[in-house]
From TrEMBL:
PROSITE patterns: RESPONSE_REGULATORY (PS50110), SIGMA54_INTERACT_2 (PS00676), SIGMA54_INTERACT_3 (PS00688), SIGMA54_INTERACT_4 (PS50045)
GO biological process, one term: phosphorelay signal transduction system
Keyword Nucleotide-binding among record annotations: yes
Keyword Disulfide bond applies: no
GO molecular function terms listed in the Swiss-Prot or TrEMBL record: ATP binding; sequence-specific DNA binding
Keywords for this protein: ATP-binding, DNA-binding, Nucleotide-binding, Phosphoprotein, Transcription, Transcription regulation
Entry-annotated residues carrying 4-aspartylphosphate: D52
Name of the molecule in the record: Two component, sigma54 specific, transcriptional regulator, Fis family
Gene3D superfamilies noted in UniProt: 1.10.8.60, 3.40.50.2300, Homeodomain-like, P-loop containing nucleotide triphosphate hydrolases
Residue ranges occupied by any Sigma-54 factor interaction domain in the UniProt entry: 140-368
Superkingdom per UniProt: Bacteria
């Protein structure tokens, strides 16, 4: 329900406006002057302030200035008496959404308020679309050898029509890689349709894939196109392909082999030209051994396999990802955020079972909650405080443990020196040449 703050010192006007606005089913709080309004604004969020300009004490102009500073998203509608139009225009210049001259027709006021609310809905939709667009065009961040190889491969295979099977733990960026493959393809301006095979109940999946005719089953009130048809000419991402039921695996194989499908309850064969991208966190070879996945389908899907390494195997990407996410979340908060060295150490020592998604969520949380622009260890979630976590957790051959510890130390030193090798070598107590050799050995890139 829309919340309006009405600010009017004239009692009769206030009461009649209050009644009229409530009749529109809006929630209305009334303030008798600017000061009264400020204390209400402190306690509650409003979608619109409807305020008189001239009031004793704190007037509408000051209220406007204060409210714009506090929350740029509140719209402010000014009311003013005939003869003070100049004040109203100044208010418009300072960010008011509209003004109306007294005396006015109530219906006129209501129409204008409705228009402001409609604009708010449009703004919210635009913001959510922008968010989606940004997600689809998200950059893949990473400079580790593994990620650079992956980015190169995406550029190589993007323009082909080959089916790609993207494998990797949850949160490693499989969907991001699929988006990049579509963008790099000749189908980039054609439809890009996604379907999460694990999120749709088994009974509905077939109709989601291939569509259905009217009356094909109970509840099929109208004809519906399937995702294969919707993606015709473009790309179809089958996410969580490892969860596809066996029955549907056979049908998918047929579409891949013959390039055609039928709607449920239909008799017509529909030709489809779709580039398939598939993603899964499961080991499909094991699924084949367990009888859960068809071997012939696996062969068809893995024409080009793409593997996203877990974040713990490319810790040198962590500082880059952190800066990238801090920039994004800091921008939303209107602040330039950074991480203290100790906090960065904590992140570098953590295993990230949820991979980049977990890192992103942590940075989002601390970006919102940290009291100042520098995020410290205390701002990080408690389980990250255990810096020795890695060392305690894993049992591995000693040589491997030593190599991993050495790599970690070098990455830390480089992160602390901002990539300056001379300073990093000094911190580590080794020569620059020795550092260079070790970076090569551990495939660390700055
Ligand atoms: N290299 C990266 N650079 C920037 N952001 C990344 C990167 N990798 C992952 N992310 C971000 O992490 C989140 C998870 O990524 P994504 O959804 O692509 O992972 P996924 O492997 O498909 O996960 P799941 O298997 O759980 O669906 C997203 O918000 C994505 O933007």
């Amino acid at each position: 329900m829309k919340q309006i703050l009405l600010v009017e010192d004239d009692e009769i006007m206030r009461i009649s406006l209050h009644d009229r606005l409530r009749r529109e089913r809006w929630q209305v709080d009334a303030a008798v002057n600017g000061r009264d309004a400020l204390s209400l604004l402190d306690q509650k969020h409003y979608h619109l302030i409807l305020s008189d300009i001239r009031m004793p004490g704190l007037g509408g102009m000051e209220l406007l200035e204060w409210a714009r500073k506090q929350s740029p998203l509140i719209d402010i509608f000014m009311m003013t008496a005939y003869g003070s139009v100049e004040d109203a225009i100044t208010c418009l210049r300072n960010g008011a959404a509209d003004y109306i001259l007294k005396p006015f027709e109530m219906d006129d006021l209501i129409i204008r308020i409705n228009r402001i609310f409609e604009m708010q809905t449009v703004r919210a939709r635009c913001a959510s679309l922008e968010d989606r667009c940004r997600q689809e065009h998200q950059e893949i961040i990473g400079n580790s050898t593994a990620m650079r190889t992956l980015l190169k491969l995406i550029n190589q295979i993007g323009p082909t029509d080959s089916t790609v099977l993207i494998n990797g733990e949850s949160g490693t960026g499989k969907e991001l890689a699929a988006n990049a493959l579509h963008r790099a393809s000749r189908r980039a301006d054609k439809p890009y349709i996604r379907i999460n095979c694990a999120a749709i109940p088994e009974g509905l999946l077939e109709s989601e894939f291939f569509g259905h005719e009217k009356g094909a089953f109970t509840g099929a009130h109208a004809k519906r196109l399937g995702r294969f048809e919707l993606a015709d000419g473009g790309t179809l991402l089958l996410d969580e392909i490892g969860d596809l039921p066996l029955g549907l695996q056979a049908k998918l194989l047929r579409v891949i082999e013959e390039g055609e499908c039928e709607r449920l309850g239909g008799t017509r064969t529909i030709k489809v030209d779709v580039r398939l991208l598939c993603a899964t966190a499961k080991d499909l070879k094991k699924e084949v051994e367990a009888g859960q996945f068809r071997q012939d389908l696996l062969y068809r899907l893995s024409v080009i396999p793409l593997t996203l390494p877990p974040l713990r195997e490319r810790i040198e990407d962590i500082p880059l990802l952190v800066s990238h996410f801090l920039r994004g979340f800091g921008h939303k908060r209107g602040m330039t955020l950074s991480l203290s060295k100790e906090a960065m150490d904590c992140l570098l020592n953590y295993d990230f079972p949820g991979n980049v998604r977990e890192l992103k969520n942590i940075i989002e949380r601390v970006s919102v909650l940290s009291p100042g622009p520098v995020i410290t260890v205390e701002d990080l979630p408690a389980d990250l405080h255990k810096a020795e976590q890695k060392a305690n957790g894993a049992i591995m051959p000693l040589a491997e443990a030593l190599a991993s510890a050495e790599k970690q130390c070098i990455v830390h030193a480089l992160a602390h020196s901002g990539g300056n090798r001379t300073r990093a070598a000094e911190t580590l107590g080794i020569s620059r040449k020795n550092l260079w050799e070790k970076m090569k050995q551990h495939r660390i890139e700055v």
